[in-house]
Amino acid sequence: MPRTILKEVSFGDTTIKTEFPERTRILQPPEPLPPLKNAEQAIRDALASPIDHEPLSKSVGPQSKVAIAFDDPCMPMIPMKPPDFREMAITILLEELEKLGVSKHNIRLICANALHRKWTRKELATILGTKIVQAFGPSHLYCHDAEDPESLLYLGETDRGFEVEVNRAVIESDLFIYVNITNSAMNGGWKSIVVGLSSFRSIRHHHRPFPGASGKSVMDHKRSSFQKLLGEMGKLVDAELDRRGRRILTLESVLNTARPSELIAVFAGHPVKTHEETLKIVDKQQVISVQGQSDVVVYGLSNQMDHYSKLSTINPILVRNLGLSYSFGLYHNKPVVREGGILILAHPCPRVFHPLHQPSYKELFEEVLPHLQDPYEVWDVYSEDYAHRPEFIHKYRYAYAYHGAHPLILWGQGAFALRHVSRVFLAGATDSEAAQRLGFEPITSIEEAIQEAENTLGKDCSITYQPIPPFYIPRVETV
User: Fold this and answer.
1) Region 195-214: what's the mean pLDDT?
2) Which residues of the chain are in CATH 3.90.226.30 domains?
3) How many whole angstroms separate alpha carbon 207 and alpha carbon 258?
């Protein structure tokens, strides 16, 4: 009888016991770095000595108009130990601005939700606390509207022709501050502004599927072209602000791998140099060294790791994205699974769509995917239609729905993964047709999927299991 290793594997909202062959390589997440002993003092210290930026006392006066933008409730993946960093940071910012004579009437709080759905005040209270939400009315605390022409400012094109359009508050405020949780190397820096506070007109340049993608993960910030593109857009924002004698102040945080996560670092300053310091801590906390790729890689998909179903419902397209982007896509250098290898995912994948939050998701799944699944063609044929469909725009602006184009963006993000591997099994799928529509092969269990992989690749094929959560990044080294 072959010897096995028994593990609890993430499976939607629960876990399942799974037997792995003894030869399975099981990755170990990094130990949590110690939390800051005094988080509030760390925030005050960062603001007192910002990186490449004047302190608040030299940036504003009694007549200044200030905008404070912040990450939406999609962040972080693993909820942090209360209070939330955004609540702590904004509370301290408001105190400091009051000391400097800035009128509350001249302060705006803006949720940087980009093409994500807008959030109710009750939902915003989960990250800001009830005190802040109750203190600011809807004209002073609101969600970014990527479809409101009055609130957007077009800044032109980069040298390579990427259109840059951002919320007017970024440019027209006397001081614009961004409060960020850098959940991964993909987040923070210029992404907070040129994505979080942008429009489909800009976002389509870097969130569409690229047929020639070379497979550099967006988590690999030193190699990914995604970060370079955002940097080019950021330079355009900087140039306009320089012309007006202004400069963005960002306040970035890093969390550890504990559950709940804890604050381990805070930096303040201009986005470029500040984010460089942030990424050093992110890499230290999240990146592990892994020797060589595997023939087969197994991921259990936890709903807790999905950004886009926060305070909502997971649906099949989100399950696909969770497997192909936020599991397969977690790597530096090369994917953990070799080219032509097999990916095994585990999730029940129910055919459920939130009626308020996910109307364009449901339509894409039910009306388009039955006859067209190629991500490049889906984007070319349907992205502009879904982005500009009046009913989708109305639901995004006024009914807490994701932007019409959002599911097409996520559908495209799985393109490289499916091109890289030979097969993808979805173990435990409760709806075989739904799994097949995603490009997956439904199968009863992880054990059966491993057996089928062995039948395809050989009984001695190498296997890796990456337990998630927590969130961490394998740096795959050449053997």
Assistant:
1) 93
2) 4-29+292-477
3) 30
